[in-house]
Amino acid sequence: MNKLGHVINFTYRNKVKNKSFRWTTLTLAVLLLVGLNVPYFIQLFSGNNDEDNMKIGIATSSYNEIATQIQQAAQKQQALSSAAEHTATNTSSQAKDTQLQWQAKAESESVLRQQVEDGSIGGYLLLQKPTTGDVAFPTVTYVSEKNNATIQNLLQTATQTAKVQYIAEGKLTNTQLEQIGTPVIVNQTSIDDLNKSSTEPKENPIKSNTENYILVYLLMILFFFSLTITGNMIASEITAEKSSRVMEILISSLSPLTQMFGKIIGVFLVGLTQIASYGIVIAINLSLPYYQEVLAGFDLHVSNLSLNVVGFGLLYYVLGYFLYATLFAAIGSIVSRTEDLGQAIAPITMLTLAAFYIGIFSISNSDSLLMRISSYIPFFSPTTVIVRIGLGSMPIWEIAISIAILLISIFFFGWLSARIYRTGVLMYGKRPTLKELRKAMKSYKL
Predict the structure, then answer these.
(1) Residue 123, exposed/middle/buried by CB under 10 A (0-12, 13-18, 19+)?
(2) Using CA atoms, how far apart are residues 286 and 280, in angstroms rounded to an integer?
(3) What pLDDT digit, counting tens, does each position of 146-161 carry?
(4) Residue range(s) in the chain whose domain bears CATH number 3.40.1710
(5) What is the model's pTM?
């Protein structure tokens, strides 16, 4: 076990200290940083300075008095923000974002919807009777072309103020007072969503949860590229040691199994280091206040991400890595020259490509027959299962069977790869045939 730790430590430190690794990681992190901020730059340079886009209308309803109270509360809040625009917590740009204008009188919802589509106003408040319970205070919805977190926060605070004022009037029953005491929430929806809700009988599963769609897509890309990079790293490391005859020295002091699994785990930790660095970049961006506004503007919310997708995604990434890594190690051990390595690992690369493309091309039909069958094939399940969990419906018993098959496959191919590795590292010259490998493996006992 101590020798295994030394191999893991040596492999990890050797790769991490490599200049090419550092520059590659840094370059990809910078590209990721730029890519994550593209929506912000789009919003920044989209010419969103038109004052009409900050004008809000009020739809006529039986709650006109409450709507007026919300308007007055928002105007008072704007006045306070303007007075504090040069303080540390409220910059002039932030104050400008909240300078809303209100239409002089209420209009019908159909008229206001047309005005939003024409661009004459930015949005409108819609007050409706609650669908459940004996609640006196209406549900409040802000309808606009696209979501704006700043406006929503302003309206939510103003609505809470109006709600307190409504309670203070003392015209409510005890039951209504209990129900009305819950925190107020201003719903936000777009014109497109309103139009689609009346014309589309069934919602597209991808559009219904864009956040999980993006997450599933990113997890598949992460699996493919990370596995391709680390797999090539494992195979090239073993082949390089073999071609330089260093392997003959190592084999006398370390068992082949210790070498193989030490390299696999060491490179796995290298891959985790890269992923962690990219995760830090993503986490920092998501924690920035302006980024929350940008996501809200595109109707994206981090809170909508499924923890099941994240958890199973990481689990299948780890299991998929060890399955493929043992194969890359076995192939690397039977190749004597690094020039021949690309051709030798081509079949494994094709398997990773197949797993990636099956998931990508079936992402809009996650419960198809192909996806269900692929969920039980260990080489494809790391991508197909995540698609089914995130965008379809996969029973827990199917997930359990898929994981069990994947674990059995890891043990089997790990055992097989260990035998090939033990035999192949000392076989030089041309690549051995399957018959030669089988004959050589019989002379060793694992």
Answers:
(1) buried
(2) 10
(3) 666 677 777 878 887 7
(4) 51-201
(5) 0.63
